[in-house]
Amino acid sequence: MTDPRIARLSLNQKTVNRCTVAEAVDGCAEFGIPAIGLWREPVHDIGVRKAAGLVRDAGLRVSSLCRGGFFTVEEGPQRRAAIDDNRRAIDEAADLRTPCLVLVVGGLPSGSRDLAAARLRVSDALVELAPYAGERGVRLALEPMHPVYCADRGVLSTLGQALAIAEPFPPEQVGVLVDTFHVWWDPEVFPQIERAGSRIAGFQVCDWITPLPADVLLGRGMMGDGHIDFTSLRAAVDAAGYSGDIEVEIFNEEVWASDPREVLRTMVERYLGTVCGPPHQTPEGPRRPGG
Amino acid sequence: MTDPRIARLSLNQKTVNRCTVAEAVDGCAEFGIPAIGLWREPVHDIGVRKAAGLVRDAGLRVSSLCRGGFFTVEEGPQRRAAIDDNRRAIDEAADLRTPCLVLVVGGLPSGSRDLAAARLRVSDALVELAPYAGERGVRLALEPMHPVYCADRGVLSTLGQALAIAEPFPPEQVGVLVDTFHVWWDPEVFPQIERAGSRIAGFQVCDWITPLPADVLLGRGMMGDGHIDFTSLRAAVDAAGYSGDIEVEIFNEEVWASDPREVLRTMVERYLGTVCGPPHQTPEGPRRPGG
Does residue A111 or residue A287 have the better pLDDT? Predict the structure, then answer.
């Protein structure tokens, strides 16, 4: 019997990184997970049409497509190629009937130390892409990334900054993605979630674990294994009016090496125990993961 | 002949981590570096009085003492011990005649996910320590740390947050330390440096390098080896009214394994080429380190 509280749970495909789209879709079906967040590369492996069919036949929603972005380079052929690729990503999102294309904006261009210029180019890219997305019913979701990735992956470092960039655009064209891993440390996270309101295009969860593994890209933990208070962040996102899917997205070599069915079982259990935890809890007692 | 621009340069002892106080002091004298930032552990190795004598005899200033802090735990014996240790650190700073005790506030207490409570305890600790410091002519310098350290080392994550905590106290008792490594990514860093004004109690430089080494604690690079635009940050700190020492503080296994004289030689060269670089530079061209 499926716990009714998983009605908003979504499996981001990255959590079972070694699975094909078909395997991930089967896993969702088996565990009663009603939505999936897809990545472009495994979708391309079988073709967008086939992926869309698999998802539809299983009765799943596609909560998001990951990812567009990487458009912080100066004007020139490389930038044009990036913008074109983002248009294709928008088309794919439309074909997959997902309301949300996640954007990881990119780091500092090679050899540059001009962070302000790189950040301005994010706004410039949106000027080109937002109307195109809007016409296809796809919303671009700016994902602020943990500052540890500022140099090489995402110059968008806080939710406040993402909102400042999103706000000149219509909310149905440009929103923000709130990922607990990226924002949990931010002293302004709660007021900024409130400010975000209907701009919240997606909510992803995974934990901040210590010590960080050698490859900081793979330092994301299963909920309950780290330091993040999910209940408060989820309550804030809900209070801001977000009622969409909650994706579990975990980059972690150990998780990836595990049996995917075990990963899904744990994920559902931890989701119920941490993200769906009681709204008011003892301020300081350690929470039992999966309890 | 010593370049007159090194008049504000200070060697933070951590940069030559394997040197004793005497060796570090000798190195400063040899390269014409007029100030040194000391760490408590090597100072304890020879005693505070002896360390103070070595520095005085070499005609050096002590730009700062590292470090107090680590007071985010709940009330109880562990917290009392931390507060007592901070009082001793203040006494040592006074004995060393440094105007600045650097505070690394500490991470989440073990088992806790209550970041807000940990942050409040920083303010509580200052209520106890600030007057004690003020009476001894020592200023407590709150160091916002890169969010990568939020869980396990420093829950103070931005300059704005550090200022909000510092501002209720007299500026001569509580200031902030600006370290390029910790703040460079912050979209608010320039307005917050301006806001800081006379609260700036110290300025430290080192670079953000990629890829980060396996131990993120040792991921700090020599200026010019990474992504930080030092000229702009230094200009902002100067414009805010800071005219004190500029410490080079590098945690890096490779630097530590090098001949300390070579490290000092490179440090001086890079300081002149990056931190003292021309105030207006091509927005995007890569700067030649040490040029």
Answer: A111
- Which residue of A73, A74, A113 to mutate against B (max B Cβ within 10 Å)? A113
* Cβ-based contacts under 8 A for chains A and B: 96
Average pLDDT of the residues of chain A: 94
**Chain segment A204-215, per-residue pLDDT in tens:** 999 999 998 888
The residue segments making up the domain with residue B239 are 4-275
Tokens describing residue B94: 């006074």
Q: How far is CA B98 from CA A64, B20, B57, B61, B101, in A?
A: 55, 19, 15, 7, 8
**Residue A107 Cα, gap to closest chain B Cα (Å):** 10
ipTM: 0.92
Residue B1 confidence (pLDDT): 58
Residue A240 lies in a domain: yes
List chain B residues with CB under 8 Å of A112. Answer: 284, 286
- Contact predicate B271/B248, CB 8 Å: yes
Q: Is the pLDDT of residue B285 over 60?
A: no
Q: What is the dihedral of CA B14, B18, B22, B25, to 10 degrees?
A: -40
Question: Would B175 be classed as within a structural domain?
Answer: yes
